[in-house]
Design brief:
Elements lengths: L1 H13 L10 H8 L3 H13 L3 E4 L3 E4 L8 E4 L16 E11 L2 H7 L6 E11 L2 E11 L8 H4 L3 H9 L5 E10 L2 H7 L6 E11 L3 E10 L4 E4 L9
Parallel strand pairs: 3-10
Antiparallel strand pairs: 1-2, 4-5, 5-6, 6-9, 7-8, 8-9
Helix pairs in contact: 1-3, 2-3
Keywords: DNA-binding, Transcription, Transcription regulation
InterPro entries: Bact_HTH_transcr_reg, Chorismate_lyase_/UTRA_dom_sf, Tscrpt_reg_HTH_GntR, UTRA, WH-like_DNA-bd_sf, WH_DNA-bd_sf
Pfam families: GntR (PF00392), UTRA (PF07702)
Length: 235
């Protein structure tokens, strides 16, 4: 319930319904017909994504994530559908969609034996008619028994939530500047060895179960990636 409310709050921020700050807890309780505890959990989830800043005695103000001349993507908000500063309506061009057996490297990544079955998806993603990224993603078939072609061509994570009730609870992310391999350069029609910003993500669902690993090469022009961190000592 609180996750759905968090999604609704983020949508209201994106749509300009909440512009400067959030309504009070009492107003949100009335708006969503839920308890104070549920509202607090929803607000906390939005806050963790870096979309709010807390001002003692004044409530929660909306963070404006922006850099002049750059497109800013909030990677901290990936667990909330429709998040502010998230790429919307990405279009996909599927290069490969098949089942493979984990090699030693993927086996170590997932903590499974060599030969474990994985779904593999390689796709180019486009935003505003420009190449946004090359994405290589893998899903454990022991957790995800089936992925539809329609999901691969749109949003796999939305499909997993709708069909399996699986959503990203937490992730390990590694950002690096990486030279394109010959294969990736061919797919992207770029020069092999050219450096791009890349993100390796291991995504976990409840009970810390790893279900997905992805390697994303970002190609969108003037792209900035935003992360939110919280100093627990100050809470």
């Amino acid at each position: 319930m609180y996750r759905d409310i968090a999604t609704s709050i983020v949508k209201a921020i994106r749509d300009g319904i909440f512009v400067t700050k959030l309504p009070t807890e009492a107003q949100l309780m009335e708006r969503y017909s839920v308890s104070r505890n549920t509202i607090r959990k929803a607000i906390d989830l939005v806050y963790q994504q870096g979309l709010l800043r807390r001002v003692q005695g004044s409530g929660y103000f909306i963070t404006k994530i922006q850099l002049r001349h750059k497109t800013v993507v909030n990677l901290s908000a990936r667990s909330i559908q429709g998040g502010e500063n998230q790429p919307h309506n990405l279009k996909s061009k599927v290069v490969t969609f098949d089942t493979i057996e984990a090699d030693e490297k993927l086996g170590q990544q997932f903590g499974v034996p060599v030969g474990e079955e994985l779904y593999r998806v390689i796709r180019l993603r486009y935003w505003h008619e420009k190449l946004y990224s090359l994405e290589r993603s893998y899903y454990l078939r022991s957790v995800i028994h089936f992925i539809s072609v329609e999901a691969v061509n749109s949003s796999i994570f939305e499909y997993l939530e709708e069909v399996y009730g699986i959503r990203v609870a937490n992730s390990d992310d590694y950002l690096s500047l990486t030279e394109l391999s010959t294969e990736d350069a061919s797919i992207m029609t770029e020069e092999a060895g050219k450096a791009f910003l890349t993100l390796d993500s291991s995504n976990y669902y409840k009970n810390n179960g790893l279900f997905n690993f992805s390697h994303t090469v970002f190609a969108y022009p003037e792209l900035a990636l935003y992360f939110h961190t919280t100093n627990l000592a100050n809470n």
